[in-house]
Amino acid sequence: MAQLIGCPGPTSKEFPGFCPQGIALLRDLKRKHRPQWFQERQEMYDQKITTPLLNLVCTVSREFARFAPDYVTVPDKAVFRMYGDVPSRRKEAHKTPAAIWVNQGAQGQRGACFYFHFTDKEAVVLGGVYSAEPADLLAYRRLLHDSYREFREILCEPKLNSLFGGLQGEKSQRMPKGFYPGHPAAELIKQKQWYLVSMLDMELLSTTRLLPTLVDHFEVMAPVVEFLNRPFAQKQKTKRTAFGM
Q1: Which of 234, 218, 227 shows the shortest CA–CA distance to 194?
Q2: Between 51-67 and 210-228, two packed helices, what is the crossing angle to 10 degrees?
Q3: For the whole model, what pTM was predicted?
């Protein structure tokens, strides 16, 4: 299990939520493009958004240790930052506070993941594969070709359907090359994305209920994320064996 380091301040099993002032700042940030405007509010942004988000990631990762230990992520690696911490017209800034938890055994940011972001208008929880390289797409499709029954069984879990309403994702119109069009999992194999997504109640952002709600969503989607990451977990296991680990 990854060691939890880099937390910006004391963390506990509770998270108080984000300050309404921080949410209001996000609303203003969408309308302001002058670097000076943001620089004057950098300290407030860090206090109301960045530091709480880092603490939230730290606390969520402690919960991951219970049901998905391979995804425990150091906060500084999980939290998306603004480019140069200053919005710019020439280079689009990442204005949405967001965090991602990936399998720490995989190289880079590949594989299915857990993801959370919020703005002044929405709070999104997502898990699975949203973007994949061609080689990774082939790995997912081969997995689904061989183990589609197990995946469908995972997707039938009642609480999963209650929270997320089923699997989402874009798909190709035609069957990918090398796969039989009449395969029982043809529709799954055609997909280019395989993810679960839920929009949280915005009122949760500023309450202590945000943390348990977020963790509950992640725990329910964990079997889907773990299943989709099997090709990469197997490669990592083979690599460790080759090096005598």
Answers
A1: 227
A2: 50
A3: 0.86
Bridge partner residues of 100 (DSSP): 115
Closest to 73 in 3D by CA, of 36, 37, 111: 111
pLDDT band of 84, cuts 50, 70, 90: very low
Inside any domain, residue 161: yes
| Total domains, the chain | 1
**How high is the pLDDT of residue 35?**
73
Q: Dihedrals φ, ψ of 206, to 5°?
A: -105, 25
* pLDDT, tens only, 7-65: 665 555 689 999 999 999 888 887 776 777 778 888 898 999 999 999 999 999 999 99
Q: List, in order, residues 6 or more apart from 211 with CB less than 8 Å away.
A: 14, 15, 56, 59, 60
- CA gap 112, 163 in Å, rounded: 19
Range of the domain at 100: 20-239
Identify whether 2 is part of a domain. no
Residue 167 located in a structural domain: yes
Residues whose CB falls within 8 Å of the CB of residue 138, separated by 6 or more in sequence, listed in order: 176
Q: E strands within the chain?
A: 98-102, 113-118, 123-129, 194-199
